[in-house]
Structures are given as structure tokens and as C-alpha cells.
Design goal:
Blueprint lengths: L10 E8 L9 E8 L4 E5 L6 H8 L7 E6 L2 E2 L5 H6 L1 E5 L10 H5 L1 H5 L4 H14 L4 H4 L9 H13 L5 E5 L7 H18 L2 E6 L2 H7 L2 E5 L5 E5 L1 H6 L4 H7 L3 H8 L25 H11 L3 E4 L2 E4 H7 L4 H6 L5
Parallel strand pairs: 3-8, 3-9, 6-7, 7-8
Antiparallel strand pairs: 1-2, 1-4, 4-5, 9-10, 11-12
The chain binds adenosine-5'-triphosphate.
Length: about 325
């Protein structure tokens, strides 16, 4: 349907507006946004600011009042809405699994509608269950009521991915889970997206989730007006205004440290030092900082060399007084 191979496609919103009947102000007012192919863009904003309405216009669960939407260059408003939705994955907090269908039948729903042969659907179901870390033999024949909330959400994500759509719309898909399950699902999802490179719009209330998952974040005000649209690192480093700063909160430096890994900063010496406390490759700078504080040291050894507290501070432009206040006994 869209002009692509298997990777994502570009999504363009132009002057997009939604005025619900009987409402005084538009829920979404004149929004223009470009989402590059293969990127995950997170919409963050307060309740009622129009995140869900904006997203639902993209698969035409809500019809725009005016404006334009293009996916892979195609004018979405000229397409048949049912056909469009078969090519746009959609995962929501409420999951929406059919209770009378098994996990396999739920996941195979869209491929079946698209006329895939049964053997190909069965193969795809196995592959997707494995992808979301659910053992196929244990889960494929269960009914949704026989799954935990987190497992249901994984099946929801697998179902959204089933027909390999280039575009995924995800509305708080991990919202109904406890913090530990949520973190686990987020980590799996980051891993998945590295492989899949779909174009994804992801709605959340949770700014931490946005910086963890997003290639870019769109911070929305009322009526979906865009307060800032940039990478997590740029938003944390230079919030556009007080409104954006209020999302970041007091611990912006720590959040920036969490975006970088020990491999990303210059090492003091390029060899591991067995005499120092050791951290693994892939450790975030925030974890490295906690580790140094816990060990009362201002340096630690990584597989690629020695990283110091001063390097961490320099990497995120932390001022001198923050260094002085954080201890570390050299
Ligand atoms: N079907 C509808 N009819 C009338 N008004 C609606 C309808 N759906 C949403 N709205 C209104 O449009 C505005 C935006 O709602 P929307 O659900 O898009 O916000 P949201 O940012 O996704 O909120 P939340 O984070 O609480 O889910 C709200 O003021 C809401 O009351």
C-alpha cells in the first residue's frame, strides 16, 4: 500500500486540525509535524492536550476537520480507511484482545484479513511470540483471560506487528503494567525497534518513558501545539521554555547521564585497570555515577578503559559546583 520495502516510511502532518462537534475549541489545532522514516517519535503532554486525537487521525479512527496527512508520500485521506488500518499497526493501553479467540488467533487476525495462507500465519505467530519473549508452545493456545496484564500487552504489541506494517501507532501500550513489568517491556521494545526500524508514533504521559524510547520527542501543549520537537538529548540540554523544563523536572542532568553509555565518553587510559571497581560495557553514565558513589571512588574501569567522574560531568556539561557536591575521594 505504501511505497516502501520493509522498513518504515515518512509521516507528514500538515496543518492538521480536529474540531469535535459541540466543542468550543479544536482538540487539535493546526499541527504540522514531520516524522522521518524508521524513527520512533513520542508524543508527551498533559491529559486532554490532544495526543490520542492526533494519533487517531493518522489511521482515521478520527476524521480530521482540515489539514493533510501523508504516509510514505500517500495522501491518507484519499485511501479507504479499512484498508489503511490493515497497514498501520495499532496498540493501545486497553489492549483490545478478543476474549473468545486464542493468543494465536488474536495475533493472526490482520494477516487472515489480508488473505495470508494458514501455514504462513502460523509461522508468523510463532515468530512474533518469540520476538515478544512469550514461549510459543506455552502461550499460543491460551485465551487472553489466562494471561497476566503484561503478557496481554505483549500479545497486543505482537498483534500490531503481525502484518509487518511500516507504521505503528502506540497509545500508552505499556500503561496498565506495574513499574517492573513496564521497564521490562520498554527494554524489550527498544531491542525490537533496533531490529525493525518501523516508523512509530508512541503516546505517553511519562517523560522518563519518552526519553528512554524516543528517537525524537514532541512535547505538546493544549490543542497539540508543539512546545518542542527534538531528540531527547537536545531537549534535556536546551529546553525551549519553562513549560518544557517543567517536564524535565529537577534532575535533568541525571536524565542526560542515563542517555549516554560508558563507551560514549573519552577514557582516561585505554586499558581496563584491574585495580579499580569494574563496570560492564553498555553501562549508562547514570549507573556508572551511582556505582562510583557507592564505591567512594571517582573512577571506574570499563572494558574499553578508565572512565572518571570528571569525564561524566564534562559529557553532560555539568557545572563545577555539582561535581564538588557529589563527593568522590581521589
Ligand atoms: N469524541 C470526542 N468528542 C468530543 N470531545 C472529545 C472527543 N474525544 C476527545 N475529546 C476532547 O478532545 C480533547 C483532546 O482529547 P485527547 O483524548 O486527544 O487527549 P489526550 O492528550 O490523548 O488525553 P489523555 O492523555 O487524557 O488520554 C479533550 O479535551 C477531550 O475532552
Amino acid at each position: 500500500m505504501f511505497d516502501r520495502d520493509s522498513e518504515g516510511v515518512r509521516i507528514e502532518l500538515r496543518s492538521l486540525t480536529k474540531q469535535y462537534p459541540g466543542q468550543e475549541a479544536p482538540a487539535v489545532d493546526n499541527v504540522t509535524l514531520d516524522i522521518p522514516a524508521g524513527e520512533l517519535v513520542v508524543f508527551v503532554g498533559p491529559s486532554g492536550c490532544g495526543k490520542t486525537t492526533t494519533m487517531k487521525m493518522i489511521n482515521r479512527l478520527v476524521e480530521p476537520t482540515s489539514g493533510e496527512i501523508r504516509i510514505g508520500g500517500q495522501d491518507v485521506l484519499s485511501l479507504n480507511p479499512d484498508e489503511l488500518r490493515r497497514h498501520v499497526g495499532y496498540a493501545i493501553q486497553q489492549v483490545g484482545l478478543f476474549p473468545h479467540l486464542t493468543v494465536a488467533q488474536n495475533i493472526g487476525l490482520v494477516p487472515k484479513l489480508l488473505g495470508w495462507p494458514a501455514a504462513k500465519i502460523a509461522e508468523r505467530v510463532e515468530e512474533l511470540l518469540a520476538l515478544v519473549s512469550l514461549e510459543p508452545s506455552a502461550f499460543r493456545d491460551r485465551y487472553p483471560r489466562q494471561l497476566s496484564g503484561g503478557q496481554q500487552q505483549r500479545v497486543g504489541v505482537a498483534r500490531a506487528l503481525a502484518a509487518d506494517p511500516p507504521v505503528m501507532l502506540m497509545d500508552e501500550p505499556f500503561g496498565a503494567t506495574d513499574p517492573i513489568t513496564r521497564e521490562h517491556l520498554q527494554n524489550e521494545f527498544v531491542r525490537l525497534q533496533k531490529q525493525l526500524r518501523k516508523t512509530i508514533i508512541f503516546v505517553t504521559h511519562d517523560f522518563e518513558e519518552a526519553i528512554k524510547l524516543g528517537d525524537r520527542i514532541a512535547i505538546l501543549r493544549e490543542r497539540s501545539h508543539i512546545a518542542q520537537y527534538d531528540t531527547p538529548a537536545n531537549i534535556l540540554a536546551s529546553p525551549a521554555d519553562d513549560y518544557v523544563a517543567s517536564f524535565i523536572g529537577q534532575d535533568g542532568t541525571l536524565k542526560r547521564l542515563a542517555l549516554l553509555r560508558v563507551e560514549d565518553v573519552p577514557v582516561e587510559s585505554p586499558e581496563p585497570d584491574p585495580a579499580l571497581p569494574q563496570v560492564a560495557a553498555g553501562t549508562t553514565l547514570r549507573e556508572a555515577l551511582d556505582f562510583m558513589l557507592a564505591h567512594g571512588t571517582d573512577r571506574c574501569s570499563t572494558p574499553s578503559g578508565v572512565v572518571t567522574y570528571a569525564t561524566l560531568c564534562a559529557a553532560v556539561g555539568a557545572p563545577e559546583q555539582q561535581r564538588a557536591g557529589s563527593g568522590g575521594g581521589r
